Amino acid sequence: MKDDNRRECFVRSPHPIADLEKRLHHQPAAQQSQKMSTHSVSVVIPAYNTVAFLSQAVESVLDQTFTDFEIIIVADLRSDDIVQWVKQIAAPQIRLISQENQGRSVAFNHGIKLSQGEYVAFLDADDLWESTKLEKQLALFARDPKLGLVDTWMFLVDEQETVLSQSTTSFAGDVWLEMLKANLIACGSSPLVRRQCFDKVGWFEDIQGFEDWHLWTRIAAHYPFDVVEEPLVHHRQQSDSTARSLDLMISNRTQAIEDLYQSVPSDLLWKKRQSYGCAYLDTALLAYRSERYRQAISFFWRAFQSYPRFCLTKAHLKVLVKSLLYLWLGTQRSAQFKNVAQILLDSPEE
Description:
This protein is globular. The longest helix is centred in the C-terminal third of the chain and has 22 residues, at 314-335. 36% of the residues are buried. 47% of the residues lie in helices and 16% in strands. Strands 1, 2, 3, 4, 5, 6, 7, 8 and 9 form a nine-stranded mixed β-sheet that branches. The two termini are 24 Å apart. By secondary structure, it is of the alpha/beta class. It is built from 16 helices and nine strands.
């Protein structure tokens, strides 16, 4: 399937709310009365944004080729439009939970607690699924009953659902050590998790921005993972995504690293340097892409101090040199060195 065809599936309707309500009220009776089976799925959606985004997310679940699911929407009590909209929908597979806005982790945990499915999926209200997502993930679970989590590739899209990039990370089996180093799962809306994993390792911790990685890593310590090598999720990048505090991000990631390594055997504690190296290097790259060159250089140096090997690649060294040039000369004067930059500094971040 071509990318254009994938995008057509998610073109925003002029009347998304009315269209979804009409769809829900006219579902076949057999589908509405379908009972939960041994391969049922609970889809947990925290809803703190607009009804327009939420209606698209819910519709992408209802479009699934696998239909034995329940949808648990956890809405902020202050989101009157969302609460009223959900209450007007007469669909037996949709359940509404209202709570004070206590953050994404609390919302997901509330949904997990009330879930009835053998598998649990998570969907942020501004993300979307391809129609075969659950079917293809469940096929991998059926092939290997030991799996704890099955991921998929994803498209990164903007607010207008234009595709910006695509994740293509592949992994299978015991990925715990790799997950300790850095998050292999690019999007929180892509994993499908076996329900028993939460009984084993617990739920989401309140570590803003890294609650997903923290939980997936704990699951990886006990269960093998797999991935559907196809982009089946559209993850929406909001316009203010790069405006977050980099210092807060690294502080939260540091908290996650320290917490995760409390249960790591002593002979593997040396790997903490790798985890810190990845953390600082990822933040340096984010700072560079946000044109915060002084911070990029600072985080790059901290990455080098933690684990030099990660920094000494051609691509990462180019980022460092570019940051130094931009900081020293300014972006306009640096443009005068275009020919030199083309030879030495070929777009390493892309």
